[in-house]
Design brief:
Blueprint (H helix, E strand, L loop, with lengths): L6 H21 L5 H13 L3 H6 L13 H22 L1 H19 L8 H15 L2
Helix pairs in contact: 1-2, 1-4, 1-5, 1-6, 2-5, 4-5, 4-6, 5-6
Length: 134
């Protein structure tokens, strides 16, 4: 199945995925925000398929707000919208996008090195819930 994405669709996917990494970074412990963002970004730029093509670059000119709450107000609905859009066009690609975002937040949380902080774990749950709301 061929997927047709408008520029706005691509922006929504980018806001969703890169915003999820930004949320994880904002929830990271003091001093670790850069490492959280780096790990999550590496995961996004390592994606394959349509998600890999779209997520090779972060969204340009997006204003995420001045608080984590303002960031979440944009990113969490974008995650749900992205999944809805992709499920309508290609369920396999929706699964790929979901896996890509989950890998990025797991990398950001450092779950491969042990338990994430309670703040990171809670943010990861919110992101996953937004992905699954579609």
């Amino acid at each position: 199945m061929s997927i047709t994405l408008t520029d706005q669709d691509k922006t929504t996917l980018r806001i969703a995925a890169w915003g999820a990494v930004s949320l994880m970074s904002a929830a990271g412990a003091a001093g670790s925000a850069h490492k959280v963002a780096t790990e999550g970004s590496i995961a996004l730029t390592s994606a394959t398929g349509l998600a890999g093509h779209v997520l090779t670059k972060a969204p340009k000119g997006v204003k995420y707000g001045k608080s984590v709450a303002e960031l979440a107000d944009q990113v969490l609905p974008a995650l749900t919208a992205s999944m809805s859009l992709l499920k309508q066009q290609d369920p396999a690609e929706a699964d790929n996008f979901r896996r890509t975002v989950v890998v990025a937040i797991e990398a950001a949380a450092g779950t491969h090195r042990g338990q994430p902080s309670p703040t990171l774990a809670d943010m990861a749950r919110k992101i996953t819930a937004a992905l699954d709301a579609a």
